[in-house]
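Instructor's aside before we start: the two examples that follow are unrelated to each other. I chose them only because their records fit on one page, so don't look for a connection. First example below.
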Amino acid sequence: MKSRIINEGELRTFAVVFDSGDEVVAGLLDFARGHNISAAEFTGIGAFSDLVLGYFDWQRKSYRRIPIAEQVEVVSLIGNIARGEDGAPTLHPHIVVAKADGSAHGGHLLEGHVRPTLELVVTEAPAYLQRQHDRESGLALIRL
């Protein structure tokens, strides 16, 4: 993974490029920690060799894992970065990917390996965002 600041104003904007074999979720968390990001949004396009989607099962209060073990195009990757209750960055990434036949699959991005590239733009938000555990859902949700 490589990154570069492309705008240094009141709010920083970064270009973040992942290479073949990079795991995106861990890499983006490392990036957020390394740049001390407390609130941001991101968008991206590219491709994966494999990934795991998550669908939140309300009854079980956990993500159902949906593995996709084939080359796919990233049609849309969007999400945010916020601080968890422990102060560390957390991600909330959603993704839609397309298979070779054009069928689309989407959900929460739990993990994914890039092939050949994934290009993100990460833009800091002007305010600190904090996630807190929500008893009803069992999720860490942004609290305003």
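Example two begins here.
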Amino acid sequence: MTTVAYRDGVMAADKNMGGYKGQVTKVYRVGDSLVGCSGDNFATLLKVVDWMQEGAEEDSKPELGDSSVHILLVDSNGEMFLYNNDLYPMPLEQDFFAVGSGMDYALGAMAMGASAADAVRVASQFDPGTGPKVDCLTLEIE
């Protein structure tokens, strides 16, 4: 899978492409928001990102099939939302968060003061689904 982490205006994710030997981007700008993707099918995750780019209308949700998705969205106010398979935004009320197979490692690292990027790097040391290369995007909080 992967690890996506957010803290202090920065969203970070590893670039691991699962069983393939390539690398992919898993953090995106969607309007004024940041979106980080984790799941078992990267093509399905891209469909969800496209849906969000197009306005995330309820009646145009993409079909997920048997895929599992975990999307972290942080809006321009710094508010965090978690999207799972129902693609309904669940508000999160904490200062940092992580999703993906390495989320427990990343959350532990951030609880000890690590940045989002460093939390993903810590997760990559212990979670086989998280790679060592990290992408970061910074949010301009209003």
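The chain has a mean pLDDT of 93.
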